[in-house]
Amino acid sequence: MMSAQRKMWTMMWSRRCLSRRRNLSSMMFYSFEGKAPTIKNSAFIAPSANLIGDVIIGDRSSVWYNCTLRGDVNKIEIGNETNIQDNTVIHVRSSELNEEPSPTKIGDQVTVGHGAILHACELHDSSFVGMGAILLDFSIVESQAMVAAGALITSGTVVKSGELWAGRPARKLRDLTLDERDFIYQSALSYADFAHRHLTYSHPTTPQTHLEEE
């Protein structure tokens, strides 16, 4: 059942979404070989983010400033209430160069921290990737699992549900505490709120200037 807080957010987002189209022309969306990004009206896409090709963004999700999501040779799919934080890069794997193709799939209520790099990997619902982490081809982060900031998840690695992985290359550090599991959920809800506020109140402006006192 949807909580009262989430119901309130949903109503507020719905009102705002009616007028959000005015901002889309300033955002950096690119088609590639006939495929273009598909974005729910309730999603927040920062004006400086770049979305290219076959990219799908779900309800109340957010892609923050200076992110690049390049779905040129395969699909990038992002679920609902997921946040992709500033300076993150997401790409995919094609069948060219004799590679096995792989999209990047990110579920619902996922947090991807600032400056992460995700390549042809899979993040299940309610997972968490810390700032500056790198996830390589065919890696999987299961639901209620956490990748620490700066970690390197090598190709084909599976981070199991309830585990915390850290290091370069990353290894299992320990099991998550109940507080850490709750933090994953709260992080997604908080960023859904941040996204609504940016969608509502953020707009281009000129900086305020002050004369230096003599």
From TrEMBL:
<dbReference type="InterPro" id="IPR011004">
    <property type="entry name" value="Trimer_LpxA-like_sf"/>
</dbReference>
<protein>
    <recommendedName>
        <fullName>Gamma carbonic anhydrase</fullName>
    </recommendedName>
</protein>
<dbReference type="InterPro" id="IPR001451">
    <property type="entry name" value="Hexapep"/>
</dbReference>
<dbReference type="InterPro" id="IPR047324">
    <property type="entry name" value="LbH_gamma_CA-like"/>
</dbReference>
<dbReference type="InterPro" id="IPR050484">
    <property type="entry name" value="Transf_Hexapept/Carb_Anhydrase"/>
</dbReference>
<dbReference type="Pfam" id="PF00132">
    <property type="entry name" value="Hexapep"/>
</dbReference>
